[in-house]
Inverse folding.
């Protein structure tokens, strides 16, 4: 057994609990009545119920509970910020540590994948209905699954080559391996959902789809980085985080040399950039952000991970200028209260200061004849929140369109 | 997923085989309504006597190595605290509100006359089945409970008295506080019982309180021998069920299995040994009626995986594979093997093999690795059971003892073993 972790950018899978460890962890669960963990899950994945199933040796039942409420159950197990949701709410915190709900969810989902199980089935309630979902990201996938379970024929359109949206193009593979994304997508395929990929839907096309389909859902994500307006922001070597993560992913972690990297931003995306740079072999990496360490929006887990891989986190500094001619040479920061300044040498500067809603989102969100959900509406939240919104949109489609 | 889990028990259609056994999990109508809504197909109502009981406090003790799950549970409770009249009212309410659920009513008298009175009263109130409690080990009267269940003559007399007083099927609930259960079971069957249920609780002292110098629980400085149940009792229950299932004279008697059922697998084990019905108490006392959700779901998934459409197909499937120990195949040994990549170097296998078996593991304290010595190993698999790492020590080569063989291939023998 190897006690040292090795860094692999694209692992085939992420180590899961085996049966014994899952049983040990499940037996720590207090099996609460009206459990706060379940209330805290945006998409009603119902941890209390699936942990109880594991506890009583019904792993199939656990996986089924997860699937029925969360079509991205396998991905969410790995990427949900559990410590801010279910695990934060866990009553076991009153005794010692919360139940590792994400690990138990992963255990049940691995069981599904390794045994190629199918838990979802279709009814024929709305068998003659057709719906188009635009965007193959979390909200759209969730909306599609919910409708397909009721018999609706759903087609998902996406401009990219592969479905998954930000799961596929933004979250680094060492946090969410491809096999897991594929596993979630396969459940949709089994429900008969069709994918039209490499297909960018134009505005005209959308208007036309409104006539061809019984309903149209748009869940096209955010995909637009916030920009801060400081001198030098357009210099060569300054990249935005989403482009950087996507580039790393499509090139399978074989990006050109990054040199000395400075990351600006203390959210999960910033931390993802930091560890991706580590995987990609950057010469040095610093992550600088305006918040205090405690208030930086990344999860505790991600911050600790950054420390572990040796990325210094520098808090309470904001960038004021990027220095260099043509190419970036240095970044200048100023302390947010005490006036200290700092200049850091850099070959690459990654701006991870948040996303903003894309320009066309406003338009679609205001339309009453089109349904929307996900980051495009909420401006950038968790995957599990997008799942919730996709499910809600499906219910709305059924109630307002099909039932009339 | 929901499969059709329905099964007929004593000619009564049950939506699934899961019943609550007679105990405080079915004390009254309001409580039992919740159980029915949760999914239990039927109940055996808390044993009804002529008079309500006077109980002690506290009355439970627990055996466990981690507080979240009890391995064993001891109780000092007798039968219903309510009188016959009160219980009859409760049963009537249930019958009216839940016509599709199955009402088994457990009764216990101390004379033939009392057994008749009880049988008539609960039949009129709406019992679908009557269970005779010959098995409570902590009654304050020696004319009742497991003292009766150890005496075939009394079992026979009381069973006959009840069968003559009711038209519904009668089940005799047996005590495990006997060397063999078949004598009393046959006595009940010959007197008209259509079914036997087993087991009731096992006489026990779970713990001694070292401050008070008495057993637990301590009741004003004293304690008593009383009934043990829960998961630790399952092996004993399964053993008695096997005895009953294999008994020629009980071929026409349907079995109801009780003792330590927590999971769908536990329930399935009883069914594979011939039970058409299973009953649960202790795990419901600990976790609540909701455990039936995983009993139903787990068994449904099992059936789906194995292509079983109806539970009748699996009842009794294991009965003939339990054979006397003198008939076991002793021609071979299965020598374990160690996966060095998985081994974490704890040496538990080495310690156990040396101190508790055949000194067949050599320990290298430089590399911290075990090596199994094939010429000394006897294939007992103590090491596999003690190793803390999943699939680290696994069954390996099959070695036939000098020149012997059997009709199965090595592969077939090896595939029979699964260690979780
Ligand atoms: C607190 C308690 C009270 C019980 N009372 C009765 C009873 O009144 N009548 C009866 O037949 N069995 C009684 N039992 C025995 C159970 O019905 C059952 O046979 C036994 O507990 C084994 O099953 P289990 O391991 O699922 O609990 C009682 C058991 C417990 C724990
Ligand atoms: S809140 Fe925690 S302890 Fe309670 S059911 Fe949920 S996971 Fe278990
Ligand atoms: S018990 Fe298992 S893990 Fe421990 S030394 Fe033996 S083989 Fe290795
Ligand atoms: S099977 Fe038994 S004898 Fe052989 S190594 Fe293991 S513990 Fe020792």
């Amino acid at each position: 057994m190897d006690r040292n972790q090795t860094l692999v950018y694209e692992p085939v899978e992420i180590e899961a609990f085996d049966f014994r460890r899952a049983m040990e962890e499940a037996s720590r669960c207090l099996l609460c009545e009206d459990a706060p963990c379940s209330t805290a899950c945006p998409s009603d994945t119902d941890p209390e119920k699936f942990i109880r199933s594991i506890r009583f040796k019904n792993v199939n039942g656990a996986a089924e509970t997860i699937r029925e409420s969360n079509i991205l159950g396998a991905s969410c197990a790995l990427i949900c910020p559990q410590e801010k949701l279910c695990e934060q709410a866990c009553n076991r915190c009153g005794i010692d540590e919360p139940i590792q709900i994400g690990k138990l969810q992963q255990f049940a989902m691995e069981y599904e994948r390794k045994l190629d199980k199918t838990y979802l089935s279709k009814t024929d309630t709305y068998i003659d209905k057709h719906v188009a979902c635009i965007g193959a990201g979390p909200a759209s996938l969730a909306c599609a699954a919910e409708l397909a379970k009721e018999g609706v024929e759903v087609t998902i359109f996406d401009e990219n080559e592969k479905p998954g949206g930000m799961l596929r193009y933004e979250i680094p593979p060492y946090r969410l391996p491809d096999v897991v994304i594929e596993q979630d997508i396969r459940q949709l395929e089994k429900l008969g959902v069709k994918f039209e990929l490499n297909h960018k839907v134009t505005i005209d096309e959308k208007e036309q789809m409104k006539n061809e389909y019984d309903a149209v859902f748009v869940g096209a994500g955010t995909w637009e980085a916030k920009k801060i307006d400081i001198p030098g922001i357009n210099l060569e070597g300054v990249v935005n985080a989403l482009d950087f993560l996507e580039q790393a992913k499509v090139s399978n972690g074989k990006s050109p040399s990054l040199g000395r990297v400075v990351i600006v931003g203390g959210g999960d995306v910033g931390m993802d950039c930091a560890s991706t740079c580590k995987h990609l072999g950057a010469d040095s990496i610093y992550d600088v952000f305006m918040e205090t360490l405690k208030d930086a929006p990344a999860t505790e887990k991600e911050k600790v991970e950054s420390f572990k891989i040796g990325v210094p986190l520098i808090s309470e500094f904001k960038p004021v200028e990027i220095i260099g001619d043509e190419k970036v040479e240095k970044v200048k920061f100023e302390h947010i209260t005490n006036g200290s300044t700092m200049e850091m040498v850099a070959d690459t500067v990654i701006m991870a200061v948040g996303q903003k809603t894309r320009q066309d989102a406003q338009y679609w969100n205001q339309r009453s004849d089109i349904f929307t959900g996900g980051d495009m509406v909420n401006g950038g939240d968790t995957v599990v929140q997008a799942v919730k919104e996709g499910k809600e949109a499906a219910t709305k489609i059924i109630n307002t369109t099909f039932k009339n | 997923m929901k499969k059709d889990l329905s099964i007929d028990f004593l000619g009564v259609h049950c939506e699934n085989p899961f019943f609550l056994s007679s105990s405080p999990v079915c004390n009254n109508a309001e409580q039992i309504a919740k159980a029915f809504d949760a999914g239990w197909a039927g109940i055996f109502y808390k044993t009804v006597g002529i008079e309500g009981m006077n109980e002690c406090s506290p009355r439970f003790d627990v055996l466990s190595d981690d507080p979240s799950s009890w391995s064993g549970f001891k109780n000092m409770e007798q039968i219903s605290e309510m009188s016959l009249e009160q219980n009859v009212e409760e049963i009537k309410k249930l019958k009216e509100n839940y016509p599709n659920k199955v009402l088994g009513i457990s009764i216990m008298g101390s004379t033939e006359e009392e057994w008749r009175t009880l049988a008539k009263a609960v039949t009129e109130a709406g019992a679908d089945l009557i269970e005779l409690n010959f098995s409570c080990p902590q009654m304050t009267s020696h004319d009742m409970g497991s003292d009766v269940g150890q005496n075939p003559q009394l079992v026979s007399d009381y069973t006959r008295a009840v069968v003559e007083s009711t038209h519904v099927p009668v089940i005799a609930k047996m005590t495990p506080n006997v060397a063999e259960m078949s004598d009393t079971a046959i006595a009940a069957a010959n007197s008209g019982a259509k079914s036997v249920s087993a087991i009731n609780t096992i006489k026990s002292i779970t713990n001694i309180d070292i401050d008070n110098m008495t057993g637990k629980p301590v009741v004003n400085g004293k304690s008593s021998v009383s009934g043990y149940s829960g998961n630790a009792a399952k092996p004993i229950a399964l053993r008695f069920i096997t005895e009953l299932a294999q008994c020629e004279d009980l071929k026409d008697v349907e079995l109801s299995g009780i003792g330590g059922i927590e999971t769908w697998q536990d329930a399935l084990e009883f069914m594979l040994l011939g039970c058409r019905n299973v009953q649960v108490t202790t795990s419901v006392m600990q976790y609540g009626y909701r455990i039936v959700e995983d009993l139903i779901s787990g068994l449904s998934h099992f059936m789906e995986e194995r292509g079983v459409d109806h539970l009748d197909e699996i009842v009794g499937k294991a009965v003939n594979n339990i054979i006397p120990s003198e008939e076991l195949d002793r021609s071979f040994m299965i020598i374990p093997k160690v996966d060095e990549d998985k081994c974490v170097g704890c040496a538990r296998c080495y310690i156990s093999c040396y101190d508790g078996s055949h000194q067949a593991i050599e320990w290298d304290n430089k590399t911290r690795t075990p090596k199994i010595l094939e010429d000394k190993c006897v294939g007992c698999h103590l090491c596999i059971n003690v190793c803390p790492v999943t699939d680290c020590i696994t069954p390996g080569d099959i070695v036939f003892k000098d020149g012997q063989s059997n009709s199965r291939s090595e592969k077939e023998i090896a595939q029979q073993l699964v260690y979780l």
The pocket of iron/sulfur cluster (ligand 3) is lined by residues B 338, 343-349, 370, 387, 389, 392-393 (CB under 6 Å). Chain B touches chain A at residues 1, 66, 68-69, 262-265, 287, 290-291, 293-295, 297-298, 301, 305, 341-345, 390-391, 420 (CB under 8 Å).
